[in-house]
Amino acid sequence: MGVLAEANLRLDANAVDYVLLAFYFVLVLGIGYLARRQVSTSLDFFLSGRSLPAWVTGLAFISANLGAIEVMGMSANGAQYGMPTAHYFWIGAVPAMLFLGIVMMPFYYGSKVRSVPEFMLRRFGKPAHLVNGISFAVAQILIAGANLFLLATVVNLLLGWPIWVSVILAAVIVLAYTALGGLSAAIYNEVLQFFVIVAALVPLTFVGLYKVGGWQGLVDKVTASPGGAEQLNSWPGNELTGFSNSFLSVVGLVFGLGFVLSFGYWTTNFVEVQRAMASKSMSAARRTPIIGAFPKLLIPFIVIVPGMIAAVTVTELVQFKGGANVEGVDYNYALLLLMRDLLPNGMLGIAIAGLLASFMAGMAANLSSFNTVFTYDIWQSYVKKDKPDAYYLSFGRLVTAAGTILAIGTAFIASSYSNLMDYLQQLFSFFNAPLFATFILGMFWKRMTATAGWTGLVSGTLAAVGVFILAETGVWDLPGQGASFIGAGAAFVVDVAVSVAVTYATQPKPEAQLVGLVYSLTPKDSLKHSDTGEDSGWYRKPGLLAGIVLAITILLNIIF
């Protein structure tokens, strides 16, 4: 970690910045307190009573993903690899978000399930449900730990407090508003945090571009830096994938990232799906990820570009990228160092609030989905079955606290990675890629059996872990994020192969039990949404909105 609190890395905040920060924290806790008034049942606490409008859930959908990991991790990636990082958005997010809105959301919302594991329970029965519930809960605690570690790093850099003090303080604030107001508090705070993050990063990008002499100045500087002009084009992205062969790199990006990792993340990750499930109608639920896709297209310009600017202007980073060993500096600090060099006081306060907002949004999203899955899918299903609703409501608050304590523990695992994006993509290849394979097969293939559901899931996860061990022990040399792309691909292929083999050796469920859970057996009318009243108007048509987003995505891929 190095000694971060050295004077040269300390952000020079003054009274104005601290007042702005304090105001922001009061606001966040106030929202939690106000949201508490709306919580009278467990459905209110875990799914906001399904009452929120599409624009609120759409912004929360994108903000839940715009956590510390996204902001710091993607700017770290920008500093290390440059424009190929945009694949995480244009290939690795938008197509899957549109698929979720158009194809998957009618299933989730229409079947009235409260979580993704609950969908697994109805389709495949208890073993698959339990495996999915436990693996999801573990993943959320590991990811919350990564968010918490980054949050503590900023507080440490700002105030010079020890990392462990910062970790505990940050955890307490997030716990306070998530335990008070449940999902509504998390969602309303996510909308606020979205605007705070944008208000912090847009000025930073413009000031940075001004400093390097505009876009052309950045192009010249990046071309002359280690990594060279390759960092200015998103394709073929060899540095990012770790492949020297351009064709393999493109295949890795399109199949590993664009298909397996991204569809696995966006369509089966309950952190995201939970936001759409809180919408007030089927139409709003379908529009949620599509509305979120609009800002998602533009976010690379405010997170990747500052990372690239930092890599060519911040003295310590320039030395680090050139191969020198600079104590206490790595790519994860790209954004912080750029703020230190460019922003005046006052602006610095807003920028720091923006960063803290992004960490809290990410961690609150992890906690609010963890408490739902643990309470409904593990505790209520297998431990304490028929308790009154008030019991589950108070248990949910207790689990939120327990999850926070566990996240404090996992924060120290995250601290061992110099680029946190590597760590995260690894986790996604373990947990999301196999789940996506099982999901898609189960949704479109009615013959698939319950036993195939859980055996496929377990063997897919083991395949990804196998690739990780081979890469870590040096048996297979995969630099960059290649190990996670290959791990995700392996998890997907193994899961499908095992599921197909086991299906033909076991008995399927009767078709009557699969209505609403398998595409071909579900009446088309039940998947339609209303287009009258609050849902009328061309700008509320999910299909049309998705078409517009897709056209912009293709255009951006051609330009860059």
From TrEMBL:
Broad class of where this protein is predominantly found: membrane
Keywords: Membrane, Transmembrane, Transmembrane helix
Transmembrane segments: 15-35, 55-76, 88-109, 130-155, 161-180, 192-210, 247-268, 289-312, 347-374, 395-417, 423-445, 452-471, 483-505, 543-559
Subcellular location: Membrane
One of the record's GO molecular function terms: D-glucose:sodium symporter activity
GO CC terms, sorted: plasma membrane
Membrane topology listed for this record: Multi-pass membrane protein
InterPro entries on file: Na/Glc_symporter_sf, Na/solute_symporter, Na/solute_symporter_CS
Leader peptide range in chain numbering: none
Family: Belongs to the sodium:solute symporter (SSF) (TC 2.A.21) family.
Name of the protein: Na+/galactose cotransporter
